[in-house]
Amino acid sequence: xxxxxxxxxxxxxxxxxxIQADLKAFSARGVYGMAVLTAxxxxxxxxxxxxxxxxPQFVADQIxxxxxxxxxxxxxxxxxxxxxxxxAVAAALGDRRGIIVLDPVMIAKGGAxxxxxxxxxxxxxxxxxLATLLTPNLPEAAALLRLPVATNRAEMAAQAERxxxxxxxxxxxKGGHLDGDESPDVLATADxxxxxxxxxxxxxxxxxxxxxxxxxxxxxxxxxxSTDEAVSIAKDYLAGAVASAGKxxxxxxxxxxxxxxxxxxxxx
Length: 268
What we know:
InterPro entries: HMP/HMP-P_kinase_dom, PM/HMP-P_kinase-1, Ribokinase-like. 36% of the residues lie in helices and 19% in strands. The protein is α/β, with parallel strands linked by helices and 268 residues long. It has a single domain (4-247), classed as Ribokinase (UDP-N-acetylmuramoyl-L-alanine:D-glutamate ligase, 3-Layer(aba) Sandwich). The protein has a 9-stranded mixed β-sheet with strand order 3-2-1-4-5-6-7-8-9. The protein is globular and about 45 Å long. The two termini are 30 Å apart.
């Protein structure tokens, strides 16, 4: 049976991040993708120049319309932008407990803020307890905990455990912002800590990597993988997408990854 996965996130008209990246990742991982829009952005590979928010009630209306008709096997939550949208998403999903991957999108690759400061409390209080898996990078983990950004593995592990204490079943803290050649991630679960090692890839084509990873995780969890299995599979998929990103010719800034690296022929 083909699984159905819903993304609740913002739009990226240049196609590399947000809803567009989520739908590409869902398709590449063999699940049927659906999308609820929380925001329209004006952005490209060089940065975000504008954000137009969807009214919270209409975000809820979109979610309710999908659930009223379609079996939803997993949900990925990305950009929620403000406290009102966070409250609406939490209320709409609260009675529909299932697989939820929460990617706390706070800052765009180019540095633009994508989450209002007052929304952090709502995100922490209402959405974190619903999450099957929370996937912050180092700055996002620090912002959620109101702590300095982790600079080593011990601090990463401690922050992952502190985040899990706030309610998520599991937390994957991504170490891409660490200094050095290594880019380790740490997964905190009820069974303990798991480390996933990776070498840093020298490329500027990293637009939408967080969106892509969280969507791949939602797809794998929907298909029945355990959390650690899903992380391993999704990280391998993303590594291939980043490694093949140079085959694309999209923009002059932080380019997108090649979501369909395993599906498109070299001659295309």
